[in-house]
Amino acid sequence: MGSTSEKKVFTVLSIDGGGIRGIIPGTILAFLESKLQELDGPDVRIADYFDVILGTSTGGLVTTMLAAPNKHNRPMFAAKDINDFYLQHTPNIFPQSGDSLFGSIASWMESLTGPKYDGKYLHSLLNSLLGDLTLSQTLTTIVVPAFDIKLVQPCIFSTTEGKENSLRNARLADICISTSAAPTYLPAHSFTTTDDNGNSRSFDLIDGAVAANNPSMLAISHIIRETAKKNNNKLEEEEEKVGMDGTKMLVLSLGTGEAKHEEKYNASIASKWGLINWIFDNGTTPIIDIFANASSDIVDFLVSTIFQSQHHKKNYLRIQSSVDIATTENLQRLVDIGTKLLEKPVSRVNLETGKYEIVEGEGTNAEALLNFAKLLSKERKSRLMKCVDDFLLGISSTKGPECNEYEVRKKCVKKVFTVLSIDGGGIRGIIPGTILAFLESKLQELDGAHVRIADYFDVISGTSTGGLITTMLAAPNKHNRPMFAAKDINHFYLQHTPKIFPQRYLIFIVYVVFLKFTKKNMHNFKRKI
């Protein structure tokens, strides 16, 4: 679609990770593309309608299929071809070890010391399909997250960065392999990029789902940054104009189905789990399932808040549903799930409960997609006909009511919200504890010895050990003041951590030796079977 400077509305397609469940968004996208073709002709494709397409893991693969060019510089895949691709290749990407008891035991033991699948077929397939096509060559902007385990931070690939920086202009095949490298399932992937000056950059990547299984928020971040660059504005100015304005975005977010309503885990059972149970339990991977669902749901909650709070909830369509567990032996079941999902009524996350609830009066997902298709078609036609006004994000470049209104808003005194956020990290909570003790001491120098961190922040948020610190800072004592001063946090950790995490070095050594022995002898064991 057109350049950012020509747009009044940004169109976004976001596709979750989910392994073989990529068939579900594949089914939905085939339906959407068919409706767009009814409106605008059989030659149109999904990539013609979206300014940004984002995908994580299997969603990154679908994203690339929709946006990578063929020899005619049109999308390599029509949306209707996505499911055929999955049905044809999935059995080879995720080969099954057989139904015998010994085969299952051997496969399980081998998975303790290496990925469940070797990834060779997937690597060969993607290299053959995509060749040396690079990120900068996609037909519309794509954003695909991965996670760099060497740097221990997310690595976000975008077409825009690929065009601007040769060292970020990775091959699409490498990006797809990386974002799909789910821990315990497929091996991590490494590659190196070079530029014309002989500089190089190495990447050591795993599945993007560990950072952003639902990549919708990355779209908002991308739009803000790119608009700021094009207009030479500061990021905070663009955040004010775009980031929280639901009228300026049309977002379609596709989940891959989730099984959380099965209630297959509970605290009573999990409280007895050790390392192995958290990684493998009755054929599932609890820690991965939990992280992926938590990541997707919190992003949906945040994006829904933006649109619902501004009464533009119809500009954000999230299609997600609980599904039964499907296996590679029953792929057609996923196609059926996707088809039935289209027939279900529109649901939206309840910001109070976090649960999806049916929205009365908005019809089925299929009807909502048809309405969304009409909006996309209208936006595309407007751009093609050059009938869009000379507005950027709704702000006129000429003197007029909009400009005056914007100037007034710029001069308004804004309330500043103060936020403290504390990461998770186990015993490393001592690090933010030290920083907070320093901060509180400086505040006390300014305002008196009685002040506390909680007196200065509107919101304090924390995850894991950060959640514990958050509570220590904000929970009231009998005098209705914070239970802990920041300087007391580290004393708490130093006193109690040895008892919370007692060391079991001998057991650990025995466990490592067992894994080494298992890996060394697994090949012979499977051969005997």
UniProtKB/TrEMBL annotation:
PROSITE patterns: PNPLA. GO terms for molecular function: monoacylglycerol lipase activity; phospholipase activity. Residues 13-220, 420-529 form the PNPLA domain. It is an enzyme of class 3 (hydrolase). Keywords: Hydrolase, Lipid degradation, Lipid metabolism, Membrane, Plant defense, Transmembrane, Transmembrane helix. The chain crosses the membrane at residues 500-518. Its EC number is 3.1.1.-. A motif (DGA/G) lies at residues 207-209. A motif (GXSXG) lies at residues 55-59, 462-466. The active site is at S57, D207. It holds the Pfam family Patatin. The keyword Translocase does not apply. A motif (GXGXXG) lies at residues 17-22, 424-429. PANTHER family: PATATIN, XYLOSE ISOMERASE. Lipolytic acyl hydrolase (LAH). The nitrogen atoms of the two glycine residues in the GGXR motif define the oxyanion hole, and stabilize the oxyanion that forms during the nucleophilic attack by the catalytic serine during substrate cleavage. Belongs to the patatin family. This is Patatin. It comes from Cannabis sativa.
